[in-house]
């Protein structure tokens, strides 16, 4: 049987019902609907069923059945992805493999500073369980109340604390994975040193479920910081923000846990669409930096460090204005400005989004060069530039000119704008996807900008680990 043999589907569904229970095999269109539409509502697929296993053993059984009956599986966690990586195609011959019921925290080891959790655990719940043990799980992003650990690992999620703690890959010590043969690789070793062969863990992280199904992981924990100090700084340009970043690293070292860049227009959008949010400075600044120090010593020590940093920044003419949060409420208000940017942009209308990364040292040059190219190609286009300056990741988005219908703008300019941005990213030795994944959104872009050697190595991995193309076909790269 092949994935194109629709006659096999009833037998497949019956076998799945027997394996995990009829109530966990959803085949009613109304029940399936939430699982086949991506978070941005850009992709709407069809599925023969939604499968909801409750254990690794049940996942393994379903994989064996999918191989037997020639049905492709689309793994899905919280369905919060931004690149269509967890959405089935339009054929109706793929099944969504929902991992939400794999939601147990299996162990917390505060001595080894690790937490072992299943793929369906909501990120915020993992954070809370770590906090209950007096530890910090530092992965943090806007969707943490609904995204899952498995999805975070599948896309190698970043977030706001990458600068200090690293992204999902760097936070992961071990995995449990169901292979295309329906076998279980138990790599749940909480070791920081293990040189006994190839690092299989890193093959599956960031692969978006195309090579295997992550069912559990061992993640690093850290001591809870004694104090967090947040500040906003107004600067004249991205280059000045980079100077502030260098100075902050020299002054605070590893205590620097957040460094976010926001253009003036970003905050204008936020204050326009959310009047409760206030522009933080009396006068506008071309760029605003949101930075945070996390200190294990004391609040006084953190305050002294940030005061020293700002004094040096003013003395060197790097910073034009600065505000330091004096309370948790003020700190939360500063972060709220950053977190409301995507919401404000959505309220403004459809836009052309880019999740890119270039070396941090080249961000200023990239912004200047690319802004100029877009202004020449689309006069009046409004740039919504924000992101994680400390690790080189920008959300470099393009809004329609004022008064122009957003849908018409996308229809006319999206392809051209994408080419301008991605060509510039490539010229600055960057990547077209920093933390959102490739999914189905950027397959052609990956094929355009990666070398033939790199693409061939990726295809060889896929062919070896998933020869039947059962796992999430049509995502990350074209096969065959």
From TrEMBL:
UniProtKB keywords:
FAD, Flavoprotein
- Provide the FAD-binding PCMH-type domain boundaries: 43-224
Gene3D superfamilies in the record, alphabetically? 3.30.465.10, 3.30.70.2190, 3.30.70.2740, Uridine Diphospho-n-acetylenolpyruvylglucosamine Reductase, domain 2, Vanillyl-alcohol Oxidase, Chain A, domain 4
Q: Name one GO biological process term.
A: respiratory electron transport chain
Matching entries from InterPro entries are given as: FAD-bd_oxidored_4_C (IPR004113), FAD-bd_PCMH (IPR016166), FAD-bd_PCMH-like_sf (IPR036318), FAD-bd_PCMH_sub1 (IPR016167), FAD-bd_PCMH_sub2 (IPR016169), FAD-linked_Oxase-like_C (IPR016164), FAD-oxidored/transferase_4 (IPR051264), Oxid_FAD_bind_N (IPR006094)
- Protein name per the record: FAD/FMN-containing dehydrogenase
Record's PANTHER family? BLL6224 PROTEIN (PTHR43716:SF2), D-2-HYDROXYGLUTARATE DEHYDROGENASE, MITOCHONDRIAL (PTHR43716)
> Which GO MF terms does the UniProt record name?
catalytic activity; FAD binding
Biological source species:
Mycetohabitans endofungorum
A Pfam family recorded for this sequence:
FAD-oxidase_C
Q: Which cofactor does it need?
A: FAD
User: Which family is this sequence assigned to?
Assistant: Belongs to the FAD-binding oxidoreductase/transferase type 4 family.
